[in-house]
Fold:
Amino acid sequence: APRFVNGRSRHPMLVELKNGETLNGHLANCDNWMNLILKEVVQTSPEATVSFDYQRSTSEETISNTYGFLRRLSKW
Structure:
């Protein structure tokens, strides 16, 4: 995995997809091609104006190269 992601397993991450959706979850795994696997994911649509417009997932979500922004969150 890329160096800035290496060793960040179980840390909270924010991923912004190219379509504007955001995913907040905990990093489970990342490969050399930056395909991410997140756990405990909250997905928010780009049109969300209130905090109730999201989907929560308790399973793992695999995200391949469709994201445009990745940030490690210091606090959840």
About this structure: The radius of gyration is 12 Å. Strands lie at 12-17, 22-30, 36-44, 54-57, 61-63, 67-72.
